[in-house]
Design a protein that fits this description.
This protein is an alpha+beta fold. The protein is built from three helices and eleven strands; from the N terminus they run αββββββββαβββα. It has helices at about 1-20, 110-115, 150-154; strands at about 30-35, 45-50, 55-60, 70-75, 85, 90-95, 100, 105-110, 120, 125, 130-135. It is flat and about 70 Å long. The termini are far apart. Bound molecules: FE2/S2 (inorganic) cluster (FES).
């Protein structure tokens, strides 16, 4: 009985500690995206962060600085579909339910506008002509190195 009580209290304090002292925030850092001048006005590329997040990096201006670029999550906040930059319509667009965002990622129409859901933005900078993005460096998914049962016995 004493062992059961100790296990119960141990579990209780372990969960309490995780609630009171949540895990530290993920480490962030600057990662290479592209040579800045390789992207022309209206161009966009899809970037995947080390943590697996999809980001659309679009060139919207021609002033010659980092303000020409924007990096927004490419995951629609409505139900998670892929969002695309449409330079000819000057918007980010989600084809799943016709969700549209303005060039800064603010909701314009569709379910995202009704729910006032913006696209999260990532910080960019240019270093020696290279476009860099500030992202989480840690993967949120653990990768198993175990072999499937069939390969272990072969
Ligand atoms: S998933 Fe994008 S508008 Fe519904």
């Amino acid at each position: 009985m004493a062992g059961g009580l100790a296990a119960s209290y141990g579990t209780f304090f372990a969960y309490s500690g995780r609630f009171l002292y949540p895990a530290r925030p993920a480490e962030r850092g600057w990662m290479y995206v592209a040579v800045a001048n390789d992207l022309q006005v209206g161009d966009a590329l899809t970037y995947r962060t080390p943590a697996g997040a999809g980001v659309t990096v679009a060139r919207q201006g021609d002033e010659g600085g980092v303000g020409d670029f924007i990096a927004l999550s490419s995951v629609c906040p409505h139900l998670g579909c892929q969002v695309f930059w449409e330079a000819n319509n000057d918007r980010f667009f989600c084809p799943c339910h016709n969700g549209a965002f303005d060039p800064s990622g603010k909701p314009k129409s569709g379910p995202v506008a009704e729910a006032n859901q913006s696209l999260p933005e990532y910080e960019l900078r240019i270093e020696d002509g290279l476009l860099m993005i500030n992202v989480e460096l840690e993967s949120l998914v653990s990768v198993s190195t175990r072999q499937p049962r069939d390969e272990r016995t072969a």
